[in-house]
Structures are given as structure tokens and as C-alpha cells.
Amino acid sequence: MNKYFITCPRGLEQVTANDINQYLEKKYKIDKGGVAFEASQDAMYRINLYSRTGMYVLKELCSFNASNDKTLYKICKNFKWSKLIDVNQTFSLKSKINSSFFKNSNFTTLKIKDAIVDSIKNELGDRPSIDKHNPDVRIFIMINHSKVKLYLDTTGKPLFRRGYRTKIHKAALNETMAAGLVLLSDWNKKDDFYDIMCGSGTIAIEAALIAYNIPPGILRDFYAFQKFSDYNPTLWKSILEEAKKNINFDNPVQINGSDLIKKNIHLALDSIGKLNLEDKIRFSVKDFNDFSPRNKKGTIIINPPYGERIGEQFNLNQLYKKLGDKFKTDCAGHDVFVFTGNLSLIKKIGLRSKRKIILKNGTIDCRLVYYPIQSGSFQ
Ligand SMILES: C[S@@+](CC[C@H](N)C(=O)[O-])C[C@H]1O[C@@H](n2cnc3c(N)ncnc32)[C@H](O)[C@@H]1O
Fold this sequence. Notes:
Layout: E1 2-7, H1 13-20, E2 29-31, E3 34-39, H2 41-50, E4 57-65, H3 69-78, E5 90-98, H4 105-124, E6 129-130, E7 137-144, E8 147-153, H5 175-185, E9 192-195, H6 202-211, H7 233-245, E10 255-259, H8 262-274, E11 281-285, E12 298-302, H9 316-330, E13 334-340, H10 343-348, E14 355-361, E15 364-372
Parallel strand pairs: 5-6, 5-7, 9-10, 9-12, 10-11, 12-13
Antiparallel strand pairs: 1-3, 1-4, 2-3, 4-8, 7-8, 13-15, 14-15
Helix pairs in contact: 2-7, 3-4, 5-6
The chain binds S-adenosylmethionine (SAM).
S-adenosylmethionine binds at residues 169, 171-173, 197-200, 202-203, 259-261, 264, 287-288, 303-305, 310, 314.
């Protein structure tokens, strides 16, 4: 068993923990921006393949206290880096530093880089190079006050890069966040699912991956752990085969996405083509004002424009008011969730919410607001 930390968007820590818990033998620990856990190699491979809301799965290399550069350099240099990084390999460093002892994070990162390079040079007589874009080995540094933790990235490209997108809608949601919204909604994977402002379809696509038990990493062809010296290709192959066998298309659920703009629907269709889900999600061009649900029950999750990347062209106050009217008049029996980064626009919806979940979309403070719509009960 090794110690790991899986990073995720702020606000999705508990969802991430619940999602990976089935692969763990011991209790996880939630932290800001991720979840710490212990896992076998088998579980680490599975978490990379199956985590819907994680970004990077990081293997803890060492953990120590330091409150000045000299101690930091000395302890880092004493670590056996030559076992991890060969002189012919490249590496990169990524850091998250929140410490009054290490105020200049660029300088601190450089110090640790020097310690790694000097350690390898002492051991092997030569040094590896830095490659910021496509390194063989990625080291993550996390410093909180005097607590320093160094991690080895087992993931590579972040897990949100599922590989189904061709071109990107300029306000597209990160896949990890979209999956997080679906998981937070507690959708039962049976009742109809709608995103009636779907843009490039991310939320509906993630809902389909969940409903059919398709691992989010299904299209991915590489993880960083495949370059590790202890990589077990037989084990990895069997995990992949098992994952493919467990995909279940018997679920008769209806998943729908619609958007006002045709170009966006083309992006969504391109993506589901890559996933072979053409007959599993119905995408169409439609104004939400013309929407009415097909059945008496269902879940609607939307991410309306909120003026950050798009939205300036829409009259947002009007748009949010009309959304509230639509839910009130046509969506009784449905669980409606609105994800937005504009907190004052939420009020324009004019319905009483049952829950507001705080989430960070990059640097934007967002809310997922839950409106259970019951006929006659709204104000
Ligand atoms: C923030 S984007 C959604 C992005 C989407 N979640 C994704 O991942 O690609 C908001 C979307 O609302 C759509 N929209 C704006 N007004 C609309 C309307 N009246 N009816 C349907 N869609 C609308 C826009 O075209 C835009 O694609």
C-alpha cells in the first residue's frame, strides 16, 4: 500500500471521496482540493481509470517539516531521486505553496529542482533535463505552513481530458466539474435527464458515461504510471478488459441535450461520435422556451451563460427570469439544478431553492442551486 492524494475542483472533495471509496481498504481523508488515501497498485490503476471528478492521482514520496530554504534543500537532496528519474529522462515540477516560511513559490520550486538535480548528479554523475510540457516524470510539491509533501504524478494529462472533445465551446465546462454536477444531483440514472442549455454537451455526456457505467478514461491511451519501473501491464490490461465488460447499455434511460445554437450541437455530436454514444443521447437545436419534459419525473441540470466567457450577448436578467418561469410552468415533478458563477443572477430565477452547493470553477466562485419543482408549491 502507498499513500496517495487525488486532486479535484474545490467543492467536489466529498463527491470524489465517495466515488473512489469502493477501491479503498482504509478510510480516506478529505482535504482542501482533494482526498488523501492509501491504496494498492491495483486500486491506483482503477482510480485513474474510473475517477469522474479527480484531476491527478499523486503518489506521496515524502513528507517532512521545513521552515527555511536550507533545510528544505537538504532534506530534498537526501531523497533517492535517482531511483525515480534517470539522467536520460525529463522531469517537471508543479507546486502549490501556502506558507509564510516560503513566500516566493517560484524561488522555492527552483530550490527543490536544484536539490533533485544535485542529488541525481551526485549519484549518477549526470543530470536529467526539465521539460515543462511533456516530461517523463512529474513531481508535485505541496507546502502548507511548514509541512512539505512531495508527490509523484501517476496520471499524466489531467483526468478531465477525457479525449472526446474535438473543438472546444468557449464556455464549455470542465468534464470533471460536469460529472461532479451529475453526481451531486443524485440523479437515479433511470428518470429522464436533460440539459436544456447544453452547449457542447458536457453535462449530458458525463451523465451518459455514468448511466452506462462507462469509465471516464475509456478513450485515454496513456497514464504516467505506465512509465514507472514497477508498471504491471498484465494487471492494467485485465482492469481495462473488466471495465469494458462492465459497460451496461441495457439501461433504457433517456438522456437529452439541447441548445439554441446549431454549432454547439455539432460539437456535442462530434463528441458522442467518438464515444459511440450516437443512439444514447438525443441532442437537438432548441430554445429552452420551447422545451417541455417528456415524462412526469426527471432531472434537469443546466449551466446558463453568466457573463464570464459568454453571456454578454444575452440579456441575462431576462434569461434567468424566463428560466424560472419555464421551470415553474412546465417542469413540475422535476429536480432542477442550475450551475452558475453569477450569484446575483440566481435571484432572478424567482424560485425557492432547497440547496445551494458552493463550488469553484477554476478561480470562479460558483453555486449549484437545487430547485425541486412540485406543482403548486413554488413561489
Ligand atoms: C455556459 S454555456 C453551456 C456550456 C456547456 N455546459 C458546455 O459544457 O459546453 C451556455 C449555453 O446556453 C446556450 N443558450 C443561451 N440561450 C439559450 C436559450 N434561450 N435556449 C437554449 N440555449 C441557450 C448558449 O448557446 C450556450 O451554449
